[in-house]
Amino acid sequence: MDLVEVIGYFAMTFLVLSFIPKQIVRIRVINLIGCLFFVAYGIMLQAWPVAISNGFVAIIQMYHLITMWKTKSIE
What we know:
Blueprint: H1 3-17, H2 24-45, H3 48-70
Helix pairs in contact: 1-2, 2-3
């Protein structure tokens, strides 16, 4: 198994795990990690739709986490 495949498995694992928690902050953080792994995976494979779409989702997750932190929704 090469590094690209390992990154893909990490991405898949974090994406699936993000559906388990009920707390929105945990969901967003776990999904963000999965998206970042998918961005790396997509870049390594030069699969630009994978990298770009997950990059956008990562930005959205970061935006929501920052907004929640600024409004003190995250403790």
